[in-house]
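Section 5.1 Outputs to date
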Amino acid sequence: MNGRRVRPRAAHTAEPGTSSDASHRDACAVEFHAMSDWNLPWTAACRCERIHMRVTAPPIVTMACHCRGCQRMTASAFSLSMLVPSAGFEIVTGEPVIGGLHGPDRHFHCAYCKSWLFTRPSGMDGFVNIRATMLDDHGWYVPFVETCTAEALPWAKTGAAHSFANIPAPETWGPIVAEFARVGPHP
């Protein structure tokens, strides 16, 4: 199973006992298996726990970014994130504030402890990049892709399956996302 949610059709008009009815049951079973395969939902919080979040959709891909901006915002060698559909992410308690550069990519932080929680990338309103270490259970997390390795510290290696000197072109992502769905890390 690839871990992606498969939604049955909204309108189900097949008669019970027909092959269409069996297809609907199979689609529902696939959706349940995909959700349980990922052990969703996941909970997350900032360091001071004033902000709590919930993830209800599996990640599209997991990443590490070595750019200097991420190095500075994390005070580390790279940032860790996972891309999820916006519909599968919610703030449960608290009110994140914009931090970082206040540019087109909106980086959200806790106003109190300053934890970098998530980013809403410019031009990608249907997605959110959640900082993986905010998850209550992030021990399963492994970056599948690393970007901006041209700016990486020489000792900082992640072992990601795919490595790019810069941010890859949009057309590069389709095969990577498909591969992640098949073989990417799961909890």
